[in-house]
Amino acid sequence: MPTGPDIKNPTPVLWPDEPLGPDDEDKLNRGLFVSMIAERLNAAVLGQASTVFGLVGPWGSGKTSLLSRLRSQLDETWKVVVFSPWATSDVNSLQIEFLSALTSIFDETQQPNAKEKVRKYSRMCTSLLKIVPVAGEALSSAVQEAVEVATAEKPWREQFEQACDVFCDLGYKVLIIADDIDRLDSEEVLSLLKVVRLLGRFPNVHYLIAYDQTTIEDLLKFRGLATKSSDFMEKIVQYPFEVPPLAAVVQRRLLTETIDELIARHGITLDAQAADRLSELVAVIAPALLTPRAQSRFREQVLAFAEMLSFAEVDAIDYVALSFIRVFHHEVYEQIAGWKVALQSGKVPLGFLDSSELSHEDWHNRIRPLVETENDVSLIMAILSGLFPGIQSQGLIFYRDHPLALSNDLYFQRYFIMGIADDDVEDRIIANAITRIVDNDVDQSDVIRFAEIIDGDDLDLAALALEKGAKFRGSHSSGSPKLVEFLIDRHNANSDGQEGFASPLRALRRWLDSEIMLALTESALTVDRLKSIMAAPDILLFATRSIASNRLSSRSPENVVADLGVYFLDILENELLSALSFGISLAYLVDTCWWFTGGDKGDERVSDIGTRIANVYQRSDLEKVIVGFVIQEDWVGSDGLSPELRFQEASFRRLFGPEATRELDGKLLWYGASKIDTEDLSLGNRLKLARAKVAEVARN
Known about the structure:
Layout: H1 31-42, E1 52-56, H2 63-71, E2 78-83, H3 91-103, H4 114-128, H5 141-150, H6 156-168, E3 173-178, H7 186-199, E4 205-211, H8 213-223, H9 229-233, E5 239-242, H10 248-266, H11 272-285, H12 292-306, H13 316-328, H14 330-336, H15 340-345, E6 347-350, E7 354-357, H16 360-367, H17 374-387, H18 427-438, H19 445-455, H20 459-473, H21 481-494, H22 504-521, H23 527-533, H24 536-548, H25 558-574, H26 576-581, H27 586-596, H28 605-616, H29 619-627, E8 630-637, E9 640-647, H30 649-655, H31 658-667, H32 683-699
Parallel strand pairs: 1-4, 1-5, 2-3, 3-4
Antiparallel strand pairs: 6-7, 8-9
Helix pairs in contact: 1-2, 3-7, 4-6, 7-8, 10-12, 11-17, 12-13, 13-14, 13-17, 18-19, 18-20, 19-20, 20-22, 21-22, 22-24, 24-27, 25-27, 27-30, 28-31, 29-32, 31-32
């Protein structure tokens, strides 16, 4: 992949893995969730019995950041104390730290005896913590006797009531926040729950405990106390609040921001094929980045390790794909070097000369022991199928040969030397919109909303909506001309802007191509009908992409191949000048006609047309023809698109044989042999480049 100049910025600040503050941007769209929790806590009244709230979410889901935002939304009747149980060294230290946090709320001048009353009660309870069960168990006779001894000085109830009076007189509510209790070991978790249950359940004192339910479940199973943490924690936590997962559009947006920063920092440019490959990779890995920490971790790894590389020596898309496997599926990453030959060839050697094809099931069996779930297997196979030609997945990504590829032995080693959103798209809207479009009910509200999203300014949201639409249609096998028309309208409405790798136009074309091919194959759509609703240049690009992806092949229905072939050959032979004026790509047209006539093994209809053009066309028309072989190649970079002119010599030779080329050379004017600036996009410069190339081909 060509790259721009080496314009690396200074090394970015290290990722601290710190929670966001209350004033930081809410990129995850969790403001409503935080407000809901704050409203529930603020509903607690003075004098109310102690309540335990829970913030429940997996590791990395942003619980600590949510706590920070929540504190800023509590009303003035609250005093917040943060208790960090994981910062203590043992169970005794945990109890002392809790007592210190609990008594820190008192003002010595206004409540001089408050701390002492609580400490007396706490000293008695500390001895009881070793014998009192955590939740729901009756005391044995031996335990009952120990309780009586521990409380002989003054009855437990009397000391508890004295401590309660202290908290009743506070005049405010106390919220004790215990974050990351899943960092504790099993004994410490049990001790904390005992402390909360026995030592701290005073009026006006409430708790907010943040934890990962799966981890707590594993810890409790280790102690043999519960089969489900949810059953156990229900006895402790009255109000559990589940952290919502990241919305799909947020997953895409965060990943796109990471890749945009990589491109900008390293001056990376992408040609059209590379932008397509990157678009497909984003569609596959974005849904796998489930938590904010996963997104931040991936961003840090991608950007940090990129400082060790030159993107003139490795392919940026392969680097991003391999980085995902390295960060999140390291056991698979460690096997890639050993699997290299199999990944390249799709075969496993049997002895010195023989080999055996590796099936989809064979690859599944290789990968499954190295990952946690079946979904992980599908994800890894999809990513690997974009990196290597010897493995295919049943999803979006397929391998394309490209410069500096990881699969190429020349470059392989280089990659390893390093050692609940308001703006998401509901599936229901998409499913209903597509169903209505197929039924020709295009004025229905969901259809209008779907079109507005695709045509809107939020490019990530548009791309996500298109990918969801294509996925929904994947299970519906009937071709629909109405859906083809809808997608063509969306394409026409959005085809004027620049196209980066994240452009929704790339997702739109992938879906449109599949719908056109499906409708043609089932005879729900004819080539004549397609000509009436789609511009010739766009039909040509559809055919070109379909041939490249093998969606259109010699195995396609004969009538589809024949009708498309006749259509393109007729343009080349009879309507060429008109088609060129409408912006058709002559190089693509020639190559497509060449394919439809059998390629190298086919007939000579394409070159025969070229001979007639060379003999019959006047000089001015011939100049239009040769300029048609000059294409503008747009390189995608951090500063937008960088255009460059290139002459499609292979396509030119397919249309014009040696004799026809010499005929052209004799008819055309010569514009001099000065150096041609390929960044000058003017028509005159295009003609100058084309004329020089024709002369060069004629001489060789």
